Amino acid sequence: MVPATSWDDFRLVKAIADHQSLSGAAEALGLNHSTIFRRLGALEATLKTRIFERSRNGYAPTAAGERMVALAAQMADQINSFEIKCAGRDVKPSGDLRITTNDTMLTHLLTPIFAGFLKAYPEIRLEIVVSNQALNLSKRDADIAIRATKNPPETLVGRNITAIAWAEYAAAALVDNGKVAEKDRTRWIGYGDVLSSLSAMREIYEKIGPEHIIYRVNTVLGLAEAVAANIGLGLLPCFIGDKTPGIRRISTPIRALDANLWLLTHPDLRDSARVRAFMTYAGAELSKQKKMIEGLLEPVYPAS
Predict the structure, then answer these.
(1) What is the mean pLDDT of the chain?
(2) Can you point out the beta strands (E) in the chain?
(3) What are the tens digits of pLDDT across the range 185-241?
(4) Are strands 166-171 and 157-164 parallel, antiparallel or unpaired?
(5) Phi and psi for 3 in degrees, rounded to 5?
């Protein structure tokens, strides 16, 4: 008789292989270490074969383990695809909706929109995942992504809302009649490795020179705070710089740095009532702020 295995067994093996440790698999699956250890031992006893080799470097799948991992990946893809198709067939805007965006947009653009949406659709529950990394909507990491990008993934569908403008900013104390003295243009703030691919970072390297970067930070919000603290000059999205106390815009929008603000979802979810409701509502609310996001309004700076 062929030993019986379940989807949970395959999930277990894949989690251990992905993390190369029992503790990592336990955290990913929401279980404790002893449960993972016991279940792996029971599975290997049932199959009468070793699934992982143990070493100082962690858990490495054997040939049998590799076959289980490959099969688990196929099963996960099929299950996710089935769940997405089912989620896309709801007819009433209700239930859970998972949205991913970054901390910048959450803080300066989206929270009031989320609040208004929940009032308009009280039967929907929102979960916001703050991340600068591209989550996999095909695997239901999120239902909707709100991203600043020039090249959205071809596997997603959505709406390009507007261009996000960037400009140069300085501490208010340095600015006189919209400009700063040349002596103050030698100290700049850059973005850390996580955001090194930003067009703003390339602008600093190419036109300002890396030797003038005296401080780095891996969040846009952190850079705005550093400019306000007079650490140096910085490049910021206008919708942040124009709202941050203690700083002033010292250039017109630099159009080479423009990114686009996208609302994105998986093709199989676009007809979901709750996804469609959010895409329509958020798109309309963000469109009301287009001029501000595009840096076309005269900044009205808050008090420091």
Answers:
(1) 86
(2) 52-55, 58-61, 95-101, 124-130, 144-149, 157-164, 166-171, 188-191, 213-217, 234-237, 247-249, 259-265
(3) 999 998 887 676 677 777 877 888 888 999 999 899 999 999 999 999 999 999 999
(4) unpaired
(5) -60, 140
What's the CATH fold of domain 95-164+259-293?
D-Maltodextrin-Binding Protein; domain 2 (3.40.190)
Phi-psi category of residue 223: left, alpha or beta, with phi > 0 → left and psi -120 to 50 → alpha? alpha
Task: At 99, list the tokens.
Answer: 């949205």
Whole-number pLDDT of residue 9: 87
Q: Which fold has domain 166-257?
A: D-Maltodextrin-Binding Protein; domain 2 (3.40.190)
Distance CA 273, CA 290 (A): 26
**CA geometry: angle 99, 102, 106, nearest 5 deg:** 75
Helix then strand then coil, in percent of the chain rounded to 5, is 45, 20, 30
Phi, psi of 158 (to 5 degrees): 170, -155
Q: How does pLDDT run across 66-109, given as a tens digit for each residue?
A: 888 888 888 877 776 666 565 555 556 889 999 999 999 999 99
